[in-house]
Design goal:
The model has no long low-confidence stretch (mean pLDDT 76). This protein is mainly alpha-helical and 141 residues long. The N and C termini lie far apart (73 Å). 45% of the residues lie in helices and 4% in strands. The relative contact order is 0.04. The protein has a two-stranded antiparallel ribbon with strand order 1-2. Among the domains are: 32 residues, no CATH class; 42 residues, no CATH class.
Length: 141
């Protein structure tokens, strides 16, 4: 007796004498597998509505609570009203990034740009670290 892959699904192994695996036989006979049912993510008791992750009962409860919240807002006159532009004040809208970015070139004299670049250079920092490591090694010997 040797085993071969099922010719239909090519996943499950069957004996050579069998035609198809048990799973394919069930599918071909039209039997639904009860393992495919997804449970509601809220109550974990009832099956979820197809295409959703919650059951019908939880969906109805959520809709009812949303309607209650809307009713409370209407009763309390807490509805959001649009903001009047006159109440904001004299805030100018920003039309481009140039207006947001400060002009930093005026703050640093031209001769200091190369010095700052050298101080912030990763290569220079790496060279300094190597030198410090060599100095530490010489001191420890």
């Amino acid at each position: 007796m040797s085993f071969i892959k099922c010719p239909r699904c090519e996943l499950n192994y069957i004996e050579e004498s069998e035609g198809f695996c048990k799973i394919c036989k069930r599918e071909m006979q039209g039997e639904n597998n009860s393992d495919d049912v997804e449970l509601c993510t809220i109550c974990n008791e009832r099956p979820a509505i197809p295409g959703r992750d919650i059951c019908l009962v939880c969906l109805k409860e959520m809709n009812a609570s949303n309607e209650d919240d809307a009713d409370e807002m209407e009763r309390d006159d807490e509805q959001v009203s649009p903001v009047d532009e006159n109440s904001i004040g004299s805030i100018d809208p920003v039309s481009s990034m140039d207006e947001i970015m400060p002009d930093i070139n005026d703050d640093i004299p031209e001769g200091e740009f190369s010095e700052i670049e050298n101080e912030l250079s990763l290569d220079a920092m790496g060279d300094e670290e190597e030198q410090e490591n060599e100095d530490e090694d010489e001191e420890s010997e």
